[in-house]
Design goal:
- The chain is an alpha+beta fold and about 300 residues long.
- About 45% of the residues lie in helices and about 25% in strands.
- It has 2 domains: about 40-210, 2-Layer Sandwich (Beta-Lactamase); about 215-300, Beta-Lactamase.
- The protein contains 7 helices and 11 strands.
- The chain has a 6-stranded antiparallel β-sheet with strand order 5-4-3-8-7-6, with helices on both faces.
- The longest helix is centred in the last third of the chain and has 46 residues, at about 190-235.
- It comes from Aphanomyces astaci (Crayfish plague agent).
């Protein structure tokens, strides 16, 4: 201050960065209280206006990209990539609700949690998924629902968090999108919430279209298989060939590694299958006790069992 012929009334000091974000220097603005000006205020307004314009340009680019892309998965990836540019945050995750299950699937994340499952009963994502509530917290330790399980899995450190629901056009919650920690360490703002809601809306449309597309494909496959099975039953009476046909088409429809089809023998209390797919084309009969394994549980109780950890 000794180098100035006045005591500054207002000071603004900002970093000068290159295109890669490296700080090259700083610039300082100072105001003399005896000759007040609005330069600092005008500079702030100019910066805010430039930021808003940049965000609008990003959204317009996203809209153009979505319009020409027919692959829903690719569209969703573009939407999530744009969210980093809009919010300038460290991490963005998309947690998709699984119908009939109590878990959320991590469909998008830039860390090791991608492709994993988390409980819908835990954490802030677990709060937003069933309720549709928007959560903004700039101190996660103060939020009663925050859970550090994902941080412990990945070694990340979540300090600030913004989480909004992803809905289809009818308002049904399909997923949750969550942004973590602004790159510049600033707080999440009302504007950030608005832009993340836009991302969530675009993601909801993409997911909805993807679900509809999958439903159409599955319905067509089921119709084709039903026609083939009906035709086979009308013109053949070989149970072994029929079971082989069911197993082949079942594996294709479910897109799985293996597909089993077991029949119940109530007299012997066994599950059995005879297949023509043995070596050299001979018939192979397999039998097991009806009370054994998951198949036995389903056969004796009539319950459906679905587990990711057999």
């Amino acid at each position: 201050m000794d180098d100035f012929d006045f005591v500054p009334h207002s000071v603004l000091c900002m970093p000068i960065r290159n295109a890669h974000g490296t700080i090259l220097g700083t610039y300082d603005l100072m105001e003399n209280p005896e000759t007040p000006t609005d330069c600092i205020w005008n500079l702030r307004l100019s910066k805010e206006r430039q930021t808003a314009q940049t965000r609008i340009e990003i959204l317009l680019r996203l809209n153009r990209s979505i319009a020409v892309e027919s692959n829903s998965a690719a569209v969703l990836e573009k939407i999530m990539d744009v969210s980093y540019e809009l919010l300038r945050c460290e991490r963005v995750s998309l947690f998709v609700k699984i119908q009939g299950e109590s878990d959320l699937f991590v469909a998008h994340a830039n860390d090791a949690t991608r492709g994993q499952y988390i409980s819908i009963d835990k954490g802030i994502a677990g709060l937003v998924a069933p309720t549709g509530q928007v959560v903004t917290t700039n101190n996660v330790d103060e939020h009663p629902c925050f859970d550090r399980e994902l941080d412990e899995r990945t070694g990340n450190s979540t300090k600030k968090l913004l989480c909004v629901p992803v809905k289809d056009p009818d308002g049904t919650i399909l997923a949750v999108v969550q942004a973590v920690n602004k790159v510049d360490k600033s707080d999440f703002s009302v504007e950030d919430t608005l832009f993340l809601n836009y991302i969530a809306e675009a993601a909801g449309i993409s997911l909805h279209k993807s679900y509809l597309h999958n439903e159409v494909i599955i319905a067509k496959r089921l119709t084709d298989v039903r026609l083939k099975l009906s035709d086979y039953v009308l013109n053949h009476n070989d149970i072994h060939s029929l079971t082989d046909l069911i197993m082949v088409h079942g594996k294709a429809i479910m897109d799985c590694d293996r597909f089993g089809f077991l029949l119940v023998d109530h007299l012997k209390n066994e599950l059995w299958i005879t297949s023509n797919n043995g070596n050299l084309g001979e018939q192979v009969t397999l039998r097991q006790p009806i009370y054994k394994g998951i198949s036995g549980l389903v056969a004796t109780t009539g319950e459906t069992v679905c587990t990711r950890d057999a």
